[in-house]
Amino acid sequence: MLHGWGRSLDALRPLGELLANQYRVVLVDLPGFGLSPIPPEASNDGGGWDTRQYAERVKQLLDQLSIDSCILVGHSFGGRLSVQLAARYPHLVKALILIGSHGLSRQRPPLEEVRIRVIRFLVACAKKIDGLIGTRLFAHYFAPKFGSADYKAAGDLRKTLVKTVNEDLQAQARAITSPALLLWGSKDTATPTDLAYKYHSLIADSELQIFPDKGHEPFSDVGSHLCATYIERFLNKRGLSSE
Amino acid sequence: MAKRLRIAVLFGGRSVEHEISVISALQLMLAIDPDKYEVTPVYIAPNGQWYTGPELLERAFYRGVPGCLSTLQEVTLLPKPGIGGLMKLGGSLASATRAITHDSSIIPIDIFLPVFHGQYGEDGCIQGLFELANVPYTGSNVPSSAITMNKYLCKMFLKVHDIPVLPALSIARKDASHDIAAVTSWITSQEGFAQFPLFVKPCNLGSSIGVTRVTTREELPSALAKVFKFDTVALIEPCVSEIMEINVSIRDHNGAQASVVEIPVSQSGVLSYEEKYLRDGGKKNGPSQGMASLTRVIDPPDLDHHLRDQVIAYGKKAFSLLGCSGVARLDFIVDLASGKLYFNELNAFPGSCSFYLWVRSQPRVLYTQLIDEMIETALNTFAVNSSLSRDIGLQALK
């Protein structure tokens, strides 16, 4: 089970504990989160990791645990990594559960699109000016004003964040052959439901479930029971129950 | 998608456990399967008015009560069979009542799911309204809810059926206000009640509200006065000095099923309302999760198996004898000095619906499934009741 950006394995623990009734559950603190340190190459000085490097690290962990076949549950950023992993190692991933997953570029509403383009243009200008005359316009003005909460809090993982956020895993999603269950909250603002529909159209064998009135973490609190119900139902239907 | 059942989840109510009901209902609505059910939340405000609206799904909304209630749709359930749902109220009650025939004034509901703790919601009152309206509802029916809410009647009933209970006295407020000295003397003259400490508690309330541990005869009047702020009947019980509580949840799904047992951990010898629901002020570990957040040991492996089996056997027996339905929690106490087990009380709708016990039981039951099965049972019960003959034609008036 792979958690979202800025979180740790604790975020998925309640859901993991419920699934552990039927399955052997491995909760992971992804490198740079929870108790896992930032690998030097994933740090800002190291240039940052992309999802491929993260996926390879997860693969390495699975090898260390002698797991040659698994069901991947990925939330948000963890979903992005799960998509990458499932596309790279189709025989490794028996099924994929994506919950409010990132990884695809999306069509923004026109006004938001214009705003983003203007900011990107201004950021490029600021960086240019900073480079030419030694000002710190980007660091002192643009990043604090326009950077996302994740960006501001990313610290030594900022380059990794930028790299992974800018990846569009459309080709990888299309390459996935494993059955996939997509669980989304209708009120998810971090990964709006248009991403869910896009994944649903890209992943050949996928089922989509949108939970009304739930947000980006539909598994939080007692919602874990609902998510576990859907996950177990899906896996049982696909002949992937533990018995 | 198959047609979804339209379900009204009712909560809040005119009870001291109003807030706990809100927490239990919010939890339940997080776990309910949206593929199977279309949920209409119905909040009964402390003044007894009924409201519905999507805002009721947000925990933060309740901080604005009562001011924010004006944004909601006021509704009611009329005790008239065949209406098919909740009636929207707007303007005067009279004009709304006239509007019954218009479909737009009805919110269609297939089944009612009451999530109340305490008076008017767990004691048979609202169940009576459901019966009159002839609508399916989850949980225990009128007589079961009523008798389980009255701790004295419940104990006396189970005692007759050989379930061990502690001795208990019941004191009516009108008797105490007539002559408190005589009542005090009468209490202490009863067998087993001459020794202190004694527990004085409201007869019809849960959540440990109004409970006093009385150590001298002189403290009895004030303890009774405290009870009579909340209830018209007080219950007096001997105080077991070395006590351990053991709770079990029982539900009726293909017969009475028992969950694992739990031992609530008390810091002061008796579980106060604060300990049950507001430990750490309800703030330290985020918002209170009601009964699901209580410090407890679930299914302790070192618990005497005979004791555990007795709790389960008495629990199933009491649940069945009382005619309960849905999910209940039965609380027992063990006198550690004598090793004797006693039934203490039955919660017809326990805090958090005891889901935290079922998820640890074998076979494990997720909260989503627990709700499914409560609804299934309620629909079966309704079908059986509907098949009963109620019309024998004119005979006496012929």
Explain this structure to me?
The complex is a heterodimer of chains A (about 240) and B (about 400). Chain A is α/β, with parallel strands linked by helices. Chain A folds into 2 domains: about 10-105 and about 165-235, Alpha/Beta hydrolase fold, catalytic domain (Rossmann fold, 3-Layer(aba) Sandwich); about 110-160, no CATH class. Chain A is built from 10 helices and 4 strands, in the order H-H-E-H-E-H-H-H-H-H-E-H-E-H. In chain A, strands 1-2-3-4 form a 4-stranded parallel β-sheet, with helices on both faces. In chain A, strand 1, helix 3 (about 75-90) and strand 2 (about 95-100) form a beta-alpha-beta unit. Chain A is globular, with a radius of gyration of 19 Å. The model of chain A has no long low-confidence stretch (mean pLDDT about 90). Chain B has 12 helices and 16 strands. Chain B has helices spanning about 20-30, 95-100, 125-135, 140-150, 150-160, 175-180, 180-190, 220-225, 275, 305-320, 355-360, 365-385; strands at about 5-10, 35-45, 50, 75, 85-90, 105-110, 110-115, 170, 200, 210-215, 235-240, 245-250, 255-265, 295-300, 325-335, 340-345. Chains A and B meet through helix 10 of A and helix 1 and helix 12 of B.
How does the SSE layout of this entry go?
The complex is a heterodimer of chains A (243) and B (398).
Chain A: H1 9-19, H2 51-64, E1 70-75, H3 77-88, E2 93-99, H4 110-133, H5 137-146, H6 149-153, H7 158-165, H8 170-175, E3 180-185, H9 193-202, E4 206-211, H10 223-237
Parallel strand pairs in A: 1-2, 2-3, 3-4
Chain B: E1 5-12, H1 18-31, E2 37-44, E3 50-52, E4 73-76, E5 85-89, H2 93-98, E6 106-108, E7 111-115, H3 125-133, H4 142-149, H5 151-160, E8 169-172, H6 173-178, H7 180-189, E9 198-202, E10 212-214, H8 220-227, E11 233-238, E12 243-252, E13 256-264, H9 273-277, E14 296-298, H10 305-321, E15 327-335, E16 340-347, H11 355-358, H12 367-387
Parallel strand pairs in B: 1-2, 1-7
Antiparallel strand pairs in B: 2-3, 3-4, 4-5, 5-6, 8-11, 9-10, 9-11, 12-13, 12-15, 13-14, 15-16
